[in-house]
Design brief:
There is one protein chain. With 99 residues, the chain is an alpha+beta fold. It has one domain. It has 2 helices and 6 strands. The protein has helices at residues 2-17, 27-43, and strands at 21-22, 25-26, 49-56, 63-70, 73-83, 89-95. A 4-stranded antiparallel sheet has the order 3-4-5-6, covered by helices on one side. A two-stranded antiparallel sheet has the order 1-2. The longest helix is centred in the middle third of the chain and has 17 residues, at 27-43. It is elongated. It starts with a helix and ends with a strand. The mean pLDDT is 82. This is DUF1433 domain-containing protein.
Amino acid sequence: MKKILYALIIVSILLMAGCKKENGMEEEGIKQTAAVVAKDFMEERGKTFVMTGYDFLDSSTGSIVVYGYCKEDKDNKMLININYMQDFKVLSYGDGVED
């Protein structure tokens, strides 16, 4: 009986440790990759993107929203919505974002 209890405790700890991951990927790795994807995406449009923040949307959607601005127009804040479950595909982007 004690062996079963210890096994359940160990499984619970392992499950809780995995909660900081998004779809098997570390949040920090997702953030870093999304920042590069956003920068490259804007470079294709002739702009230099500077990331200022990010938010993970509901984990079932697999989306991260990257916030920032283009060096060419620092006052024009923008966001880029990237799906990390679909090989970091850019879903949408927009500018004129309010703080």
